[in-house]
Amino acid sequence: MTIVLDGKKLSEKSEEDLKRRVSVIKKSTGSTPILATILVGDNPASATYVKMKGNACQRVGMESLKIELPENTSTGDLITEIEKLNKNKDVHGILLQHPVPKHINERKCFDSIDVLKDVDGVTSLGFGKMSMQENAFGSCTPYGIMRLLEEYKIELEGKIAVVVGRSPILGKPMAMMLLNKNCTVTVCHSKTLNLSDEINKADIVIGALGIPKFIKGDWIKDNAIVVDAGYHPEKCGDIELDSIIGRCKAYTPVPGGVGPMTINTLILQTIESCEATLK
């Protein structure tokens, strides 16, 4: 029987625990965890994502601080705003909504975020520390996937995992997290030769390249664990899921699989950041 890796269900369960933790913080200190979100420009999809994250904060009793900057904001001006938030002791997490306008050096801006407030897991330092199994916040989508696999007791050690996608905030940290759990990991992408052969070897397939239904169902072997981290306007992910339901061991639905875990992990890590300042 195929297991549905239900991220919506797990995120709702997690929120009950997060509400409790926020309540404890408020009662013991009078403080409230605060997530600062920075939105540059007027990308409608980005504005929607920021709103969803603000709503998630509200549901667990946190506060969100919205910083909205015009499209023509320079790299230097954006870094100045980030540095203000780094210094603000009331702010526990900083999210720079991706993507920023093309004229901005996004990597330079990400890396200006204090690693202790990097609750979205986007800094180079945070990635390096996570890869070396040192304490750091993980990139939210891959860490959310790891939490989902753990919830459903998916065995990872010794498994062959293929990650299709190599972005710095999804594919690459996903590969490192699986490697740290003793998987044998191959990182592929849209230019990989004989991609179907690589995927067919995998016990665990992670679709994370951002192209609708790029990964065909018949490339995936029976009893594989299938995680689709894509979401597109066509309401589908990066993998043809229809043909693998019933013959794979487990899969994430689209929507309702990975997406809810991404936002939930952002909220979780903001609360953890707040808790760390109180110790």
Could you explain the architecture of this structure?
The chain is of the alpha/beta class and 279 residues long. It has 2 domains: 29-114, 3-Layer(aba) Sandwich (Rossmann fold), CATH 3.40.50.10860; 140-258, Rossmann fold. It is built from 9 helices and 9 strands. It has helices at residues 7-29, 44-60, 75-87, 106-110, 124-131, 140-151, 171-180, 195-200, 258-277, and strands at 3-4, 34-40, 63-69, 93-96, 160-164, 184-188, 204-207, 225-228, 250-251. Strand 5 (160-164), helix 7 (171-180) and strand 6 form a beta-alpha-beta unit. The longest helix is centred in the first third of the chain and has 23 residues, at 7-29. The model has no long low-confidence stretch (mean pLDDT 97).
Summing up helix and strand content along with how strands pair, one would put the structural category as alpha/beta
CATH superfamily of the largest domain: NAD(P)-binding Rossmann-like Domain
**Which architecture name of the largest domain does CATH use?**
3-Layer(aba) Sandwich
Helix content: 40-55%
What is the CATH fold-level name of the largest domain?
Rossmann fold
**The CATH class of the largest domain:** Alpha Beta
Number of domains: 2
Order of helices and strands: EHEHEHEHHHEHEHEEEH
- End-to-end Cα distance, whole Å, is 45 Å
User: What shape does the CA trace take?
Assistant: globular
Strand order of the largest sheet: 1-9-8-7-5-6
- Into which percentage range does the β-strand content fall? 5-15%
For the residues shown, what is the average pLDDT?
97
Contiguous uncertain segments of 5+ residues: none
